[in-house]
Amino acid sequence: MNEMYLNGFYGLEGDVSPEELAAFIPPQRLRRIEKLGKNVLYCACRACTQAGADIQTPKTWGLSVAADAGSLESTCKFMDTIIEDGDELSSPTAFASSVHNSTGLMLSMFLHLSGPCVTSGQFDFSFAAAWLSAAQFLRRGMCEQALVAVAEDVNPVAADQAPAQAEQFKPVLRTPQGPFARRAAAFVLSQRPTEHTLFCLRRFAFARTEKPIALSPQQTNLSGAQRLAACLKAKQPFAFTDAFADAYMQLEGTPYVN
Amino acid sequence: MPAPKVTVAGMGCWCACGQTAPDCLEGALAGRAQFGLPAGRVDSTYAASYPVFMAPIPPHPQQQSVSLAFFLAAAHEAFSQAGLDPAALAGKRVGVIVGTSVDASFHCFDVYKHWRNHTYTAQDSQELAHYFASSTAQSVSRYFHFSGPFQTIVTACASGTDAVGLGKSWIDSGLCDAVLCGGTDEINLIPYDGFIRLLIASKDKCRPFSKNRNGINIGEGAAALLLVSDALSREFRLTPCGYVLGYGNACDGYHPTAPDPQAKGLQKAIAFALQEADLQAQDLAFVNAHGTASQANDAAEAVAFTHLLPGVPVWGSKGVTGHTLGAAGAIEAVLTLCALNRRIVPPTIGFEQEDETLGFAPTCRPMGLTRRAAISDSLAFGGCNAAVVLGAADYE
Questions:
Q1: How many CB pairs under 8 A join A and B?
Q2: pLDDT on residue A163
Q3: Disulfide-capable partner of A40 in A20, A151, B55, B340 (CB 3.0 to 4.6 Å)?
């Protein structure tokens, strides 16, 4: 894959506070947005601002969302209404919010994005797939900059049951013993350097492999997007690897000097 | 900027109107499909009144989802048509990219209900573990022992079209030697109840682009396309069954469940796909529309078609497939290629009465065609729009 440039990034573990998000978006516009959406919106606002973009200005940027397993808060809310009230009184609003790319819609509306948009949902490797799509958008000339937005929700059943059955869930969950937390991240990429470019990215690989790559226990406690955001904070050349089960993602970069 | 065409070496389809790609086209031509109430498939009070398009479920192991079983059936047909054993691709960079909605959602209603009601059992735990292990594209890649990238696209109803378009991108960027792409979805309580509660499902058979259209019918099934690089095509002496010529995608940022009435995003997606294919509207034999038969969708598409594709025949195929959600774009891409290769556009099954406000009537009877390219578009909840331009096997 050709060189790409990173112009902004932000990672968040846990939930954003109303005060922090209010610095970017008036609270009254956020009434119907669930926690996951607020978290990723906050990260996207921070990353866009770092990349020198005005939130309110229309942008033809691409948007590639890593939706993990989708909005579990809304999905569970919809199922709750079926269980409690029956099919005929189940909540259409919860259903609409449970659709994976409702996050993409929310970001495109608040950040005024009108470029290509794709959402990827494959648990741990949603982030790698989203990164790949953003790179493809840029390479094809579909947009000049692309936002990779990562939204990771907590599955309440897994959070409750997996710690007690960690061995059973070990092959399919990175941290069956916990901690389970909502996480979000955002990265702004471009095909060419801008005056705000922070890193030049030189090598990206994402594949399934018959020879699994092992990470240290410390590395597996965070998701790939969180670890990359932490790695970028160091402002040093980096060679990043994320791996779980039979797949991996690798990325190399160096700080960019104008 | 024009981009190189990408070869489709094989394709397969499994849905309510047929269980092979040629059979599906025959179903579309004859208006033949398995349509009825989903009793036994969905435990909903609506199951007595809202019909669906159902596909027969292929035999599959318990830990495999129905969606995965549908996709593997279509994928095997694609490899068979290409005359290629998947094992022969060992050592090649083979990617998998699959669009879906249900298969990538937390669709384990019974597990969730048992957990909430404190009746959770070891069997629920096992089902939950299967759910976490069943990431669609990764499971397909694992099944065939491929070692390339994999991506499960969940851009709602545009997912299948995005999978085909991005699959093209993976080939023409040199990322992969081959890409198995497509879409799959199954009938499930969550979208079934959800669409009904949003008041966009119909109790009748859907009527795409009709003045009296009153909503969608959920469907299920899968389609798979095997895309290959020129080098791989030469090495294995593959015979093209079509080409992916262009792909475009743009979002509306308009509304959670309704398309932009001005169809700005869709127009942008269609224009980009045509530009990449280096074609104009007059080069197209037909457009395979998203045509869900909801008032808002068909009206938005009509705006885009009258602006960008004036005079191009419009075919809607959901009257024989139902709305297969994440699979729809892929099924429609395969039907489009089959129709181009047979040099015939099927009628829009379900169409009854012209809607003068749309500015056109869709195909009403089978029509012969001479042009060798067509376009297929999709619109999705969340305001995502995608389009692919496809070329016949003899496309020059």
A1: 230
A2: 96
A3: A151
Which among A78, A105, A165 has the least Cβ separation from residue B125? A165
What CATH number does the domain containing B279 carry? Answer: 3.40.47.10
pTM of the complete model: 0.97
Of A1, A117, A157, the CB nearest to B251: A117
Catalytic site includes residue B241: no
Domains and CATH numbers, chain A: 4-196 (3.40.47.10)
Whether the per-residue pLDDT at A217 is higher than 90: the answer is no
Domains of chain B: total = 1
Dist CA B337 CA A256 (whole Å):
46
The pLDDT > 70 percentage for chain B reads 100
User: Among partner residues B108, B142, B169, which is closest to A246 by beta-carbon distance?
Assistant: B142
**Given a cut of 70, is residue A1 above it in pLDDT?**
no
Give the gyration radius of chain B's Cα atoms: 20
CA distance B275 to B251: 18
The C-alpha atoms of residue B231 and residue B356 are separated, in whole angstroms, by 49
In whole numbers, what is the pLDDT of chain B averaged over residues?
96
Domain range spanning residue B324?
A: 6-391
pLDDT at residue B62 in the model: 84
Most B CBs within 10 Å, among A117, A124, A248, to test the B interface: A117
Name the pLDDT band for B263 (thresholds 50, 70, 90).
Answer: very high
Contact yes or no for A157 and B115 at CB 8 A: yes
Q: Is the pLDDT of residue A43 over 80?
A: yes
* Cβ-based contacts of A165 with chain B (< 8 Å): 125
Q: A193, A204, A182: which is closest to A42 by C-alpha?
A: A182
Predicted ipTM beyond 0.90: yes
* Other CB atoms within 10 Å distance of the CB of residue B318: 26
Tens-digit pLDDT profile for residues B116-130:
999 999 999 999 999
DSSP string over B312-325: --EEE-HHHH-B-G
Digit-coded pLDDT (tens) for A113-141: 999 999 999 999 999 999 999 999 999 99
Mutate to test the interface with B, among A89, A98, A119, A123 (most CBs of B within 10 A): A119
CB B257 within 8 A of CB B17: no
Look at residue B1 and tell me if it is in a domain. no
Could you confirm whether B338 is annotated as catalytic? no
